């Protein structure tokens, strides 16, 4: 994931292309973690169940996006001289 980020930052590569490259490269890792959380103990997992894992990861994603949006909004207000 670092290589596409560095390519975007320093080589000014296309943002959409670097995003999808990072996504494709990291997708198997995310799926492996989700499987590990969700499958039974007999299969080597934590046995949280697929629904719990899906809801949990969805909540983390929503929290991350909300945090980034609020920080961006605060940065715009600060740049405009509003607090």
Largest sheet: none
Described by its quaternary structure, the protein is: single chain
What is the string of SSEs from the N terminus onward?
HHH
**Helix fraction?**
over 70%
Radius of gyration: 18 Å
What is the terminal separation in angstroms? 35 Å
- What structural category do the secondary elements indicate? mainly alpha
Overall 3D form = flat
Can you tag this structure with a few keywords?
flat, single chain, mainly alpha, 83 residues, 3 helices
Secondary-structure map:
Elements: H1 2-11, H2 15-38, H3 50-79
Can you describe this structure?
The chain is an all-alpha fold and 83 residues long. The protein is 77% helix and 0% strand. The protein has 3 helices and no strands. 2% of the residues are buried.
Short synopsis of the structure:
The protein is mainly alpha-helical and 83 residues long. The protein is built from three helices and no strands.
């Amino acid at each position: 994931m670092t290589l596409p980020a560095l390519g975007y930052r320093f080589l000014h590569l296309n943002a959409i292309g670097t995003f999808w490259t990072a996504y494709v490269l990291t997708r198997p890792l995310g799926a492996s973690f989700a499987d590990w959380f969700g499958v039974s103990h007999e299969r080597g997992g934590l046995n949280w169940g697929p629904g719990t894992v899906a809801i949990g990861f969805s909540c983390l994603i929503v929290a991350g996006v909300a945090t980034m949006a609020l920080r961006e909004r605060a940065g715009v207000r600060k740049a405009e001289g509003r607090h």
